[in-house]
Amino acid sequence: EDKVVQSPLSLVVHEGDTVTLNCSYEVTNFRSLLWYKQEKKAPTFLFMLTSSGIEKKSGRLSSILDKKELFSILNITATQTGDSAVYLCAAATHNAGNMLTFGGGTRLMVKP
Amino acid sequence: GAGVSQSPRYKVAKRGQDVALRCDPISGHVSLFWYQQALGQGPEFLTYFQNEAQLDKSGLPSDRFFAERPEGSVSTLKIQRTQQEDSAVYLCASSYRDPNQPQHFGDGTRLSIL
């Protein structure tokens, strides 16, 4: 059975801190690894990673994939209160047209 | 519209009633997915359409769940004879056929069964 596990479950930090969120996966027919940010509504897309070792960056956020060890990390530097959200990691497979298997999410709270 | 649109945003129904949830995908997106998200959990795959064809429904929890996309655009997820365990947020996502393009999600319908 396909499985995606995220850690930690939740995290409380102060503004300006750097955080690292972890995602490990075990899926058949792996295609890519995606990160989404979910506040109270729709998960919004952050990154899609298909190759090992290539860091993707967007502002203060960055992510990298290790296909040998089957994990990914999401880094957020200089955190702001607006970064408070649930961060979801998902593995896309070649099955069902690129269906996503999600982890349970990491709930991040950034205090002022 | 620019994004995936779902309606209603909230639905309250009594146990045993039938409900219908609507998803209007991003224009041009041929792939459409339904996911179920229980409180405090990640979304779980329900079903997938490519245009009007339902190519995978392996995630539908029971035969009370039915989805359709008759014209390859708007999709409806129907739940018959609702039960309390059906209470969840139902998310719709759409994407281009290109697997290198991500899925984009709607805000979801929060379904509460009393």
Structural class by SSE content of chain B: mainly beta
The two chains with the largest interface, and their residue counts, are: A-B, 28 and 29 residues
Q: What is the percentage of strand-forming residues of chain A?
A: over 45%
Query: Biggest sheet of chain A, open or closed, and with what strands and sense?
Result: 6 strands, mixed
Low-confidence stretches of chain A: none
Distance between the termini of chain A: 41 Å
Unreliable runs of chain B? none
The count of helical stretches of chain A stands at 0
Helices and strands of chain B, in order, run as EEEEEEEEEEE
- What's the number of extended β-strand segments of chain A? 11
Outline:
The complex is a heterodimer of chains A (112) and B (114). Chain A has strands at 3-7, 10-14, 19-26, 30-38, 43-49, 56-58, 61-66, 71-76, 85-93, 100-102, 106-111. Chain A has 112 residues and is mainly beta.
Structure description:
The complex is a heterodimer of chains A (112) and B (114). Chain A contains no helices and eleven strands. Chain A is globular, with a radius of gyration of 14 Å. With 112 residues, chain A is mostly beta strands. In chain A, 0% of the residues lie in helices and 60% in strands. In chain B, 37% of the residues are buried. Chain B has strands at residues 5-7, 10-13, 19-24, 31-37, 44-50, 53-56, 65-68, 75-79, 88-95, 104-105, 109-113. Chain B has no helices and eleven strands. Chain B is globular, with a radius of gyration of 13 Å. Chain B is mostly beta strands and 114 residues long. In chain B, strands 2, 4, 5, 6, 9, 10 and 11 form a seven-stranded mixed β-sheet that branches. A four-stranded antiparallel β-sheet of chain B has the order 1-3-8-7, with no helix packed on it. At the A-B interface, strand 4, strand 5, strand 9 and strand 10 of A face strand 4, strand 5, strand 9 and strand 10 of B.
